[in-house]
Amino acid sequence: MKRLLTLLLVLAVTGCAYFNGVYNARQAEKRGDEALRRGRDGEAASYFATVAEKAETVLVRHGDSKWADEARLLAGRGWARAGQCSRAVPHLEYALANDGLTGERLELAHLALGMCRIDSGALTEAESLLVMVMQSRDRWRASQGAIWAARSALRRGATEEALGYLAKTGTSVAEWELITAFVAQEDLVRAESLLTRRAEEGDYRPELLAMLPKLWVAGSRSSVATIIERYDAARLRPGERARLHLVLADLLAKAGEDSAATAHFSITQQLLRDSLPGRQASVRLTALTIRELETLADVENVVARTHDAATDVPLQVKLEQNLIFLNLLLNRTDYTGASLFLAAEIARDSLGARGLARQLFLRVPDSYGNSPVAPKALLAAAALHPDSAASYLGRLREQYPTSVYTLALDGRDTPLLGRVSRGDQLLQQAWAVGSKAMADTLSALRRAEQERLNPNVATTVAPAPAAVPR
After folding, report:
1. Which domain holds residue 360?
2. CA-to-CA distance for 210 and 447, rounded, in angstroms?
3. 85, 120 in Cβ contact below 8 A?
4. What's the CA gap between 422 and 284, in Å, rounded?
5. CA geometry: angle at 232 spanning 243 and 199, to 5°?
6. By percentage, how much of the chain surpasses pLDDT 90?
């Protein structure tokens, strides 16, 4: 009797184990479907990977149980939605051939396998599976079938067929599918038209933030501004509007349109001041402000203003660390002027402080006139200030007529014949010393911060990353 009870107990526990595996997979599937319906595909993919893993565990351990068919479909659908079709297809093909699927389960299997057929390029077969899903009484599954069938048709270049499939979905869904396809195909004229219409409806999607820079780079700058204006007029939520203005401000800043960029950074701040986008806008305004400042004190003061409010913004961290590096180079005892030259490069390339960089470059020939680095510094200063370039280049030719930089500027042969100049050797040596000092400084700062946060815990600080190479 005891042996019988023990056997029954083992069977009960085992049955509970594989039922729990299927139950947990179903719960993850439910969350994945909810994320899909909200348009959060990345979040959904994570949930469906969990679905597949839990379902496969049931199949491996209890492949002959009554839950095996359910687990197989869950695994196939999970891997398909997680983007791992090589693992999904065997489960789905077996389920369709052997599990007697009907109704909703059959539609889900067809949809998942259709997605994977698109992934493998079997587009005709994919569409035949997906068309069956389009007949579903469930509106969401029917819409999903139409969307994926349209994606297949668009990959074949059959735009009209894609439009026919999408006609069975909502206008918003259909147009976003077409927008995505047109952007991928670089058919930006049609993408712009549809985006403008979506903007007028206030129909925002996160992928818009990646689309707008592509339109900008392709030359549709006015269209990008117009689309954002239409979203503003449609009374979009403040957070979404702020992100759009932040994108436009970044594009304008990169194009050198500082005044316009400042206006859009300010709008972002006003809409979402205490959020990450608002703090990012504040730091970007700082970066714009320091562009033409000519003294180190002014640059440091402006960067310090956003320290407390933006310690979690990578650009703020970058600005502060590069100021540390610049000061290390300026304070280093170096009679060749190479460290001063490198400080100027940090100001120009890492801080974007062009005014300060020009002043530092000019200090090299003023303070180290006989250094091999001095003529190169004049050349760098000329590149930073076109209005004074003629004066700086005239000084270069007058003071350093035989310098390799002067000879190269005038298109004459240099005596180096491919060898590194003495000036560049000095810069390489100064860079090695300076970057080592910077790594040591960052390591010490991190150690001090960890000790401040955990005074009773001994910490081992990982080596600081190497400074950005020249």
Report:
1. 317-376+422-453
2. 38
3. yes
4. 38
5. 90
6. 43
Which residue carries 């100064």 as its tokens? 430
pLDDT at 276: 86
**Alpha helices, H only, 156-275:** 159-166, 171-184, 188-200, 208-217, 221-233, 238-254, 258-272
**What is the widest separation between alpha-carbon atoms in the chain?**
109
Which whole-number Å values give the CA distances from 153 to 146, 149, 185, 186, in the listed order?
Answer: 10, 6, 13, 17
Q: Output the pLDDT for position 241.
A: 92
Residue 345: inside a domain: yes
296-324 burial: b if 16+ Cβ within 10 Å, else e: bebbbebbeebeeebeebebbeebbbbbe
Tell me the per-residue pLDDT of 83-140, one tens digit each, with 9 for 90 and over: 999 999 998 998 888 878 889 989 999 999 999 999 999 999 999 999 999 999 998 8
Backbone dihedral region of 122: left (phi > 0), alpha (psi from -120 to 50 degrees) or beta? Answer: beta
As for how many domains the chain has, the answer is 1
Name the one residue in this structure whose structure tokens are 């068309």: 131
Distance CA 167, CA 161 (A): 10
